[in-house]
Amino acid sequence: MEMQLAAVLASLALGGALLVLVFGKWWQPLADADRRVKELADAVEALLQLRSELLKVEPAPPESDQLARAWLRRVQEAQDEVASLKARHDGGQLYVLRLVQYFVSTAPVAGSAEKQLKAVRALREQGEALLEAALSTPQAPPPLLRQPEELELPPGTSLTRPYLNEALRFLGDCDAALGVWGAGGVGKTTVLTHVRDACGLVAPFDHVLLVAASRDCTVAKLQREVVGVLGLRDAPTEQAQAAGILSFLRDKSFLLLLDGVWERLDLERVGIPQPLGMVAGRVRKVVVASRSEAVCADMGCRKKIKMECLSEEDAWNLFEANAREETIHRHPRIPALSRQVASECKGLPLSLVTVGRAMSSKRTPEEWGDALDALKKTKLSSAPGPDKIAHPIVKFCYDNLENDMARECFLACALWPEDHNISKDELVQCWTGLGLLPELADVDEAHRLAHSVISVLEASRLVERGDNHRYNMFPSDTHVRLHDVVRDAALRFAPGKCLVRAGAGLREPPREEALWRDARRVSLMHNGIEDVPAKTGGALADAQPETLMLQCNRALPKRMIQAIQHFTRLTYLDMEETGIVDAFPMEICCLVNLEYLNLSKNRILSLPMELSNLSQLKYLYLRDNYYIQITIPAGLISRLGKLQVLELFTASIVSIADDYIAPVIDDLERSGAQLTALGLWLDSTRDVARLARLAPGVRARSLHLRKLQDGTRSLPLLSAQHAAEFGGVQESIREMTIYSSDVEEIVADARAPRLEVIKFGFLTKLRTVAWSHGAASNLREVAIGACHAVAHLTWVQHLPHLESLNLSGCNGMTTLLGGAADGGSAAGELVTFPRLRLLALLGLPKLEAIRRDGGECAFPELRRVQTRGCPRLRRIPMRPAASGQCKVRVECDKHWWGALQWASDDVKSYFAPVLI
């Protein structure tokens, strides 16, 4: 028995030895493959590190540059091949599978890895030689066209001239990043603005981008700023947006001016090409403005500029310029008092300007004395350290506004995100909905009053002119914004509690109950709220705000909407672009005190009759609804007895449902409703006539006519011949759109004093547009698309207020402006578009010239040109722009730009191409 057991054990030992011998022999090549692939991965990692170091320097000689480019290309190819090899190696982790792969494969991994490893080592040797050559060659800084001291800068730059000169000299050195830091309100934004305006005369950049980073800045928010300035398209994800920005800027020289940076930002994630500095003949520079020197250092700024408060004499000069010399010397006692008032500003430019503007209307020594006492007494104990000077000053200027209406309107501006460019139209709509403006029967008079308030706030410097990226206007007269110090102060001393987290990158609403408790106004707009955790639900349950601003949260969760139904004190609710799909959110129908409701840019199929529960509703906006049909129950509008503004539009250009508008017009006729502003889609001129008969009680401000079904060949709406029939609409219409109809002729000779926007689309039979000089002279925007039979648009040259002209898909258009026989100017006469800012010429294959007679055009305010699909257009007959005007951005095809003929180099120098 023992002998048998010994024999079995001996057999097992012999078998085990044979197995170890056999499998050890088979395992060896697999172990070699693992080792070779690891060595190859380490070698590639070292190679990529070498590539990064080489990109930080610029090879000076052209031949060296060509060698470097070829080497970089081979490195990329090697990286791709190694990635593919590693994927093959990692594909089979089981021993048996790897054995099969080894014996079956025609190119074993170990052998391929060995071969590739030799190639990578050779590339590394070449790269080390290129790096040594590049480091031994002095790098040439970007060429300075003019020294900063030689520039003729505007008079307003005198106080910041030393800082500005230092910043401009940075553009000509080899540093990649510059930091500008100092307290809030000391003038950092002003310096960055002057750098943007002057750098074109100092150093050549393809693009100069001034963007606001602001507090709580996210990658997505910064991407939106960059995309807006560059005029690029939005992408669905951060990664896709970064790829688009990177692709656009990769081969260009650019200067990125980052204003209001609070913490380190990952520019690579945004899509800004790396590394910065001098890269293969391109200049990539960044200027960072922050309140913190440490933040500038974290952003890689070796060179930094610290901005200080002004000296006593400079501070006085700035104060005197804003308070006006004639005011200060109006009485013998005022000069001494004014010096004391100026000293209370502690040399802070923001305070000196705002207080100076506030004092410019003070005429007596008593007023100046009272102001001095008020400044000394005004304190905001909760103001943070750097802003402890500025906040009381803002409070003083706020108190000195001429009336409570201006003060309330100013505080409402702080509900928008920090450094946000607020459209004046959007602001006026908000003020109206909040009840900050008096209710006037004439909506145009109300708008004029609102814009006068904006002018007062601009004059006081409590709000600044913002930027309008659409027109490439920097700054713009269509947008405003608040300085971050001013906004912070406004939120601190606003009467009533506010919860403002606008543009803060939130994914969920704030959870703290204390924030929601007693909050009168809540602004969570421009976030990405997509979830409401259970803990947040408790905070929302006890909240009772009167104002709730949720616009631009594109995936607002259902639980947030469910919580809203308990906010029974709400009078103002803005849910524009919040991702509402199909069903109307019935929770809104519980808000019986609601006066303002904005549900624009959603996907709502129908309005429920329960909406009539909102008996206090005055303003209902449902613009740009995604669906082409929307059901409106009969009798709904008549039950909303206090309704003043109603706008119901779809975003589609195809036909609407037959029963869409009938219930609305029937209700208006039966109820005798009084609407100061009405906007609707119509499909019959008979419906237009019905609306005209309801005037002046119902003022049709916006009409979109689509697929007119009454066989109309000549549109009579703007014709003086039909004034008796359509006069009520002609007098009140502000915006008119005509789509997809068989209209052949449009005669506009009737008085339409309020008409500002007109759009024609898919009018394939339209041949003639006869527009008299006196008709609708206030037109600001004209857009015409897919009107193939139109040969020219001579009438647009007689629109003195035209700001935007957009032409697309007009296949028959040969010239933009005809000759004298077409009602145009005589040959040789200069045609001027005094206010045109945006000119878009898209998909016009037969367009050969701007003017038939070849004469010149003047565009003194032009800021942006878009041209694509205009192969025959070879010359834009423009005169040189006025000195000091910012460059016109031309978005076009590279080949078209290269073939474009200019009247002179002086004309061309005022245009900056954005090649798409």
Automatic annotation (TrEMBL):
Checking PROSITE patterns in the record gives:
LRR
Note the coiled coil stretches, chain numbering: 30-88
Q: Where is the signal peptide?
A: none
Tell me where in this chain the Disease resistance R13L4/SHOC-2-like LRR domain is found: 554-651
| UniProt entry keywords in alphabetical sequence | ATP-binding, Coiled coil, Nucleotide-binding, Plant defense, Repeat
Q: Name one GO biological process term.
A: defense response to bacterium
Superkingdom as given in the UniProt entry: Eukaryota
Entry keyword Iron-sulfur: no
- NB-ARC domain sequence ranges: 173-326
Transmembrane domains' residue ranges:
none
GO molecular-function annotation terms? Answer: ADP binding; ATP binding
| InterPro entries, per the entry | Apaf_helical, Leu-rich_rpt, LRR_dom_sf, LRR_R13L4/SHOC2-like, NB-ARC, P-loop_NTPase, Plant_NBS-LRR, WH-like_DNA-bd_sf
| PANTHER family xrefs | NB-ARC DOMAIN-CONTAINING PROTEIN-RELATED
What family does the Swiss-Prot or TrEMBL record give for this protein? Belongs to the disease resistance NB-LRR family.
Name assigned to this protein? Uncharacterized protein
Origin species, per record, is Oryza barthii
